[in-house]
Amino acid sequence: MSNKSCDAIRKQWHIIVDGEDIPPPLKNFKDMRFPEPILKKLKAKGIIQPTSIQLQDLPVILSGLDMIGIAFTGFEKTLVFVVPLIMVALQEEIMMPIAPGEEPFGLIVCPPGELARRHMKL
Question: Which top CATH class is 3-120?
Answer without folding.
Answer: alpha beta
